[in-house]
Write a structure and sequence with these properties.
The protein contains 12 helices and 14 strands. The protein is an alpha+beta fold. It has 3 domains: 2-131, Beta-Lactamase, CATH 3.30.450; 145-209, Helix Hairpins (Orthogonal Bundle); 217-371, Histidine kinase-like ATPase, C-terminal domain (Heat Shock Protein 90, 2-Layer Sandwich), CATH 3.30.565. The strands form 4 sheets. Strands 2-1-5-4-3 form a 5-stranded antiparallel sheet, with helices on both faces. A 5-stranded mixed sheet has the order 7-9-12-14-13. A hairpin with a 6-residue loop joins strand 10 and strand 11. Helix 6 (134-161) crosses helix 12 (341-351), helix 7 (163-178) packs antiparallel against helix 8 (182-206) and helix 9 (221-233) packs across helix 10. The longest helix is centred in the middle third of the chain and has 28 residues, at 134-161.
Length: 394
């Protein structure tokens, strides 16, 4: 009797719960807001819906994916097909870790796939792809943080221990130049030029030891990206095709506009140099990701990092032997690079309390920057730079 009464009470409560439709909430909007790639596939194997994350994952637009068979994206013997078949045969929910999704456009990715029944009877399935957990992203990013800290310490040391002796060496070379013949002057000028070059390098590194408070406020990230794109297309990226995939509803970033410009100008310059000629393409995208929070070192504060900005190129990718050390100072893929340009990007992102990570495959290298959102309760300046996450491609 008691169990019957309890069941009746639960049924009454359930009947009073508003549905998505009655609440005015579009279920597709809920799927679009999910931070993982999501596809809806019908019983015949055709894709009926993809969210923004799925479009970015497969590097295809919704118009190209929706209404096409899933086998156009994945081979028929893919484990994903087997999971879908299980659900269509009656299973409510199945999942598998360590699935390799490999397509010509995106290359191989190790993912976890979850397939859930939709409808009664189940004539559609919901496919969710989890490429990498937030916890693992943060763990990797915390590892990158130490690289930028080592640059900061090195910058302070070099400024003190190297610049002063170099000044003396240069002065001595200038004195020798006054009393030597033309043949020896070639050598004294070489000494002066090399001393100037090292001083310029040390000056660049001194930026890392700048601990002044970071002035921040509300910044429209799309205005920043548009400015950087125009600068790039008028110079180093004039032969590159740009594709923009922006979320127009994105709220402002809590950041410093000039430094954000520096971040993305550097990322786009690297992407342009990596892109092939001809046929180079850079994809700029923005989106809102839910549930991304990170604890700052030395405190209990947790930063909300919902704003994701991605810079993708179609170059050859980052060499495998450089990936594990890519965020260390002086590691670079460029022939004449110093490995400091994107180390500075790492510092700036860290001072914003943000996260940077990369994924690289042939014809698809993506750098993703997660940044905090501005709200009116925040001040326009911070008492000290946030010791957040660091990372960069040199």
């Amino acid at each position: 009797m008691a169990r019957s009464s309890a069941a009746t009470t639960m049924q009454r409560r359930a009947s009073r719960q508003p549905s998505f439709r009655s609440s005015g909430i579009d279920p597709s909007a809920v799927l679009s807001a999910l931070p993982d790639p999501v596809l809806v596939v019908d019983g015949s194997g055709e894709i009926r819906y993809v969210n923004l994350e799925a479009q970015q994952f497969f590097d295809l637009s919704a118009a190209m994916m929706e209404g096409t068979p899933l086998v156009d994206l994945l081979p028929p013997d893919s484990p994903v097909m087997g999971l879908i078949e299980q659900v269509l045969r009656g299973s409510l929910r199945v999942s598998q870790e360590g699935v390799t999704i490999d397509t010509p456009r995106i290359g191989p990715h190790q993912v976890t796939v979850r397939v859930t029944a939709m409808g009664e009877p189940s004539d559609h399935v919901l496919v969710t792809i989890n490429e990498r957990s937030i916890a693992r992203k943060i763990d990797n990013s915390l590892t990158h943080r130490h690289a930028a800290r080592s640059v900061t310490a090195m910058a302070a040391m070099l400024a003190h221990e190297v610049k002063n002796p170099l000044s003396g060496i240069r002065g001595a070379a200038q004195l020798l130049e006054e009393n030597c013949d033309e043949q020896d002057r070639v050598l004294t000028r070489l000494i002066c030029d090399e001393a100037d070059r090292i001083v310029a390098l040390v000056n660049r590194m001194e930026v890392f030891s700048d601990e002044r408070p970071l002035e921040r406020g509300a910044v429209n990230i799309h205005t920043v990206l548009e400015h950087v794109r125009k600068v790039a297309q008028s110079g180093f990226a004039r032969n590159i095709r740009f594709v923009e995939r922006y979320d127009p509803s994105l709220p402002p970033v809590y950041g410093n506009r000039d430094q954000l410009i520096q971040i993305f100008l550097n990322l786009i310059k690297n992407a342009a140099e990596a892109a092939p000629e001809p046929g180079g393409e850079i994809v700029l995208s923005t989106s809102y990701q839910h549930g991304v929070r990170m604890a700052l070192a030395g405190g209990d504060t947790r930063l909300h990092l919902p704003l994701l900005v991605s810079v993708q190129d179609n170059g050859d990718g980052i060499p495998e032997d450089l990936r594990s050390n890519l965020f260390d100072p002086f590691v670079t893929t460029k022939v004449n690079g110093t490995g400091l340009g994107l180390a500075l990007v790492a510092k700036i992102i860290g001072d914003h309390g943000g996260v940077i990570e990369f994924d690289s495959q042939p014809r698809r290298t993506v750098f993703k920057v997660s940044l905090p959102m501005y709200d009116e309760s925040q001040n326009t300046s911070d008492p000290a730079p946030a010791k957040g996450v660091r990372g960069a491609r040199g």
